[in-house]
Amino acid sequence: MTEKQKLFADEYLIDLNATRAYRVAYPSVKKDETARANASRLLTNANVKKHIDDRLEEIHNEKTADAQEVMEYLTSVLRGESTSEEIVVEGCGDGCSEARTMEKRPSEKDRLKAAELLGKRFGLYTDKVDMDADMDLHITVDYGEDDTR
């Protein structure tokens, strides 16, 4: 992969605008149609595509919560172990007030919501019907008296 192709791929990852990325990597191209067509062609280049896919995977791994992280967070809220910061306004006399930050544990409502989400995840709230049936299907069509079929 050339340096310009790498620059194109890295620029493309900023906002997924291939035309803009192509213009950054190849500033001598002035026409929109040319930049658009060449950018589209570059996106199908195996090396460029692999570089983009690899970077997207890195970004995904660094920034995206996985199922385990979500479950651990919901569990910590359910158990009242997590804290959040809230801004409160306190009076300080003579009609003045000031804002300050304080840590707050999950409310009963927050804990109940976490329990609900965890319960849904584990299928605790579904009515399960286990039906094991062996039957034949017979369809009868009644055409009425006027039909001579």
Description of the molecule:
The chain is 52% helix and 13% strand. By secondary structure, the protein is an alpha+beta fold. The mean pLDDT is 88. Keywords: Viral genome packaging, Viral release from host cell. This is Terminase small subunit. One of its GO terms (biological process) is chromosome organization.
List its traits.
Terminase small subunit, Terminase_Gp1_N_sf, 6 helices, single chain, 149 residues, two-stranded antiparallel ribbon
Summed up:
By secondary structure, this protein is an alpha+beta fold. It contains six helices and two strands, in the order H-H-H-H-H-E-E-H. It has helices spanning 3-15, 18-25, 32-43, 46-63, 67-78, 108-121, and strands at residues 84-93, 96-104.
